């Protein structure tokens, strides 16, 4: 048994505003303590590559007689474990040693890995691939709109993608999302709300970068469904003279350890969203990764009362529709049946501990059989897009792929755009967001109108 104590002397530093956060010695001590606890437990061995790396390296030290536990781990061991973590958060929601469980160990493995990356980035700089993947809003603004046809033609070229992989480190095999010819905000600026919109209140839509620039069909469907249910949709930056628009939630920056860039984006978004929150509007989010980041991380990286206020007002889009159902405000007339629906339960949705609201809402559609596939896509943010991680991620995603394929569904849905890209690549099946499926059930969105999921489909 290792001599490393399980209980920390003080609560671990999870916020970059904690003076110990960038203390190398404090970080190393916390890594060894966490690794020791995980090594003794081993429950998470099948979740991702981090834990096999961790267990094998500690086992080797013990078997060679160099250690009794995790006390001899070095920088190479730490880097290997950290690089294999794709921040799915599943280990946290299953772990019995977390603050949420009231445990004295106060273990938070995902935040510890994020801290390690932040420290490495501060020491060694942000890698080129992380600089690129950390700015999806810039990529979308540059490659979308009038440039979309050219961008999609280039993205569909296997030769160009291979060259891109050599230069950027982004996998040539990962199916990148298409660029939209018309952005969501452009569409919304000319959209005439339904007459009934507003009778059941107003919400603010956080469209996400992918919703704004890549798959605006998802957020257009969200607007249509919400208005159909009497809810008016507001979107900061559209129809508000002199106001800037929302930007990325900051998660892609955090993936690369760029705390400063993430915090700047969080601060910008909080300033735009706060007046709406104080006007009594909820912030609805169609993407589980963005929703998780806003709820769980914004106040950690920007510890202000305003950030906490915005985080508390944030709700998943399908969770909001469940709320409408509880309030007897959800329209329950569905002229279109959906058949057998394979519903992928995204990791960052599960990490919010709100159940599977998309499955619950679709489950009220008559003659619709929703079957949940509770497996990880191994994309989770930007990790799965990197060439260095592609094959590992693909291997871990096979449980999801088999779960969808063996079901032989009439429709596949996932709240997560990136998980959907993985499913399309592996199965050839088109993937909808639950809000698109709901729009079809309402008869608001013809089945054949669903937009391509990948740039290759669109080209």
Overview of this structure, please?
The chain contains 24 helices and eight strands. The protein is an alpha/beta fold and 459 residues long. Among the domains are: 24-124, no CATH class; 334-450, 3-Layer(aba) Sandwich (Rossmann fold), CATH 3.40.50. α22 (417-427) links the parallel β7 and β8.
Summary?
Pfam families: CCG, Fer4_17. The protein contains 24 helices and 8 strands.
Structural class: alpha/beta
CATH class of one domain: Alpha Beta
* Uncertain stretches: 455-459
How does the major sheet shape up? 4 strands, parallel
The overall average pLDDT, rounded, is 93
What proportion strand? Answer: 5-15%
Shape: globular
CATH architecture of one domain: 3-Layer(aba) Sandwich
Break the fold down into its secondary structure elements and pairings.
Elements: H1 24-41, H2 50-63, H3 75-83, H4 90-94, H5 109-124, H6 128-133, H7 136-143, H8 148-155, H9 158-168, H10 184-189, E1 202-205, H11 208-214, H12 216-228, E2 232-234, H13 251-255, H14 259-278, E3 282-285, H15 288-301, H16 305-312, E4 314-316, H17 317-326, E5 339-344, H18 347-350, H19 357-362, E6 368-373, H20 390-396, H21 398-407, E7 411-414, H22 417-427, E8 431-432, H23 434-442, H24 455-458
Parallel strand pairs: 1-2, 1-3, 3-4, 5-6, 5-7, 7-8
Helix pairs in contact: 1-2, 1-5, 2-3, 7-11, 11-12, 12-23, 14-16, 15-16
């Amino acid at each position: 048994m290792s001599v490393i104590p399980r209980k920390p002397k003080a609560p671990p530093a999870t916020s970059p505003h904690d003076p110990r956060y960038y203390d190398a010695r404090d970080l190393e001590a916390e890594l060894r303590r966490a690794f020791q606890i995980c090594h003794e437990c081993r429950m998470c061995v099948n979740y991702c590559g981090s834990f096999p790396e961790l267990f094998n390296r500690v086992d080797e030290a013990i078997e060679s007689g160099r250690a009794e536990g995790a006390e001899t781990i070095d920088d190479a061991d730490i880097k290997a474990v950290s690089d294999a973590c794709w921040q799915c958060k599943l280990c946290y929601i299953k772990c019995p040693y977390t603050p949420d469980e009231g445990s004295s160990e106060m273990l938070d493995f995902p935040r510890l890995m994020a801290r390690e990356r932040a420290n490495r980035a501060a020491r060694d700089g942000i890698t080129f691939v992380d600089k690129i993947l950390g700015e999806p809003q810039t990529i979308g603004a540059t490659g979308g709109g009038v440039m979309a046809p050219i961008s999609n033609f280039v993205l569909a070229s296997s030769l160009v993608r291979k060259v891109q992989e050599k230069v950027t480190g982004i996998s040539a095999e990962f199916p990148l999302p298409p660029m939209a010819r018309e952005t969501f905000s452009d569409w919304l600026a000319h959209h005439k709300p339904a007459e009934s919109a507003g009778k059941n209140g107003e919400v603010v839509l956080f469209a996400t970068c992918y919703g704004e620039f890549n798959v605006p069909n998802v957020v257009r469907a969200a607007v249509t469904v919400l208005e159909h249910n009497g809810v008016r949709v507001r979107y900061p930056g559209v129809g508000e003279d002199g106001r800037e628009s929302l930007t990325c939630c900051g998660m892609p920056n955090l993936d690369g350890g760029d705390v400063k860039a993430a915090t700047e984006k969080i601060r910008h978004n909080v300033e735009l969203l706060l007046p709406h929150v104080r006007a009594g509007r909820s912030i609805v989010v169609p993407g589980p990764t963005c929703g998780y980041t806003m709820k769980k991380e914004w106040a950690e990286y920007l510890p202000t009362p305003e950030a906490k206020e915005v985080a508390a007002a944030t709700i998943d889009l399908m969770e909001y529709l469940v709320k409408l159902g509880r309030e007897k405000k959800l329209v329950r007339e569905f002229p279109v049946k959906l058949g057998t629906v394979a519903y992928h339960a995204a990791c960052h949705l599960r990490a919010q501990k709100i159940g599977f609201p998309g499955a619950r809402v679709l489950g009220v559609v008559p003659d619709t059989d929703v079957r949940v596939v509770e497996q990880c896509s191994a994309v989770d943010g930007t990790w799965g897009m990197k060439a260095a991680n592609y094959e590992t991620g693909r291997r871990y995603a096979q449980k999801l792929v088999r779960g969808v394929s063996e079901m032989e569904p009439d429709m596949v849905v996932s709240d997560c755009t990136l998980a959907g890209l993985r499913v399309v690549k592996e199965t050839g099946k088109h993937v909808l967001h639950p809000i698109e499926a709901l729009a079809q059930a309402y008869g608001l969105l013809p089945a054949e109108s669903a937009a391509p999921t990948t740039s290759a489909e669109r080209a």
